[in-house]
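One such given next:

>
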Amino acid sequence: MHNVVISGTGLYTPASSISNDELVESFNTYVAQFNAENAAAIERGEVQALTESNAAFIEKASGIKSRFVMDKDGILDPQRMKPRLPERSNDEWSILCQMGVAAAEQALQRAGKTAADIDGVIVACSNLQRAYPAISIEIQAALGVQGFGFDMNVACSSATFGIQAACNSVQLGQARALLVVSPEICTAHLNFRDRDSHFIFGDAATAVVVERADLATSAYQFDIVSTKLLTTFSNNIRNNFGFLNRTAEEGEGKADKLFVQEGRKVFRDVCPMVAELVGAHLHENSLNVSDVQRFWLHQANLSMNHLIVKKLLGREATIEEAPVILDTYANTSSAGSVIALHTYQDDLPSGALGVLSSFGAGYSIGSVILRKK
């Protein structure tokens, strides 16, 4: 059995960003057009008039101020309101591969490793652009990694679940080091015509090098003290898009083929579950919540993060204890907690304890206890 560390993290950020004001302008233009085109039906009570959005509402509801996106023009076009990402030939690297490789290269650089040091790639994310061949195997080929690769999906918790899978393989001696890559184009499954959710998601990709502690040379090492996972079934966050859609034409184009959620139910259900799991995880490892210097939480909603840490600490957390990237990145699904880790780690002293935690559809919750070397 080998001790295992995270020795490098990487982040790919798209070039374009959309502010709340820009998003609202596009949305409200669409609302005005819809209401004008359906004025008679609205007057007869046959169609529900749409309500405009506003930037203050978005920031108050979520803590989000802007989001990075793979395509800005398509999203902001009131006639389209979805990204335009042209298909690539089978001889070109896919867009998820391109994003994942960029994040992986940075993670390798911080870990002081090359592709020759890596024995496999796990792609762990919410949305895969195809069923097969696996995106992980494509990234493996693009990087020149010898070994194996596989894709996995546990929605927003995918990265932490992937880290546990990688940790287990390295711990058991099945690999010297593995890459866990989370490329997320969340804007492609977001309904930008839904007032309650059109502002939630952004795009990004992250990567983490998980390797044997005795082989690690990086200046950015964290011991993986322990991992803990939990899933319980819920319909409150759902996306019904899949290969069976073509067998049921009556469902084509329906709202449930994009992201849908019961936000208030999710908030009520998930916050206590996450606090309970993380608290129990620390207790099982003879650690106190007060020992934790940093919580790198899933970045879905600012109020959720505040409540979870408050339940754990018994007080409001400082921005240093629970850093936020949600304001500029929005919800990037599985990438969010790793973006927080990547961005807010270098200031921690040796021996500092941190918790990487993600939570989302499933419900799924992942907790990874880390100690700075």
Notes: The chain has a mean pLDDT of 97. DSSP finds eleven helices and 13 strands in the chain. The radius of gyration is 21 Å.
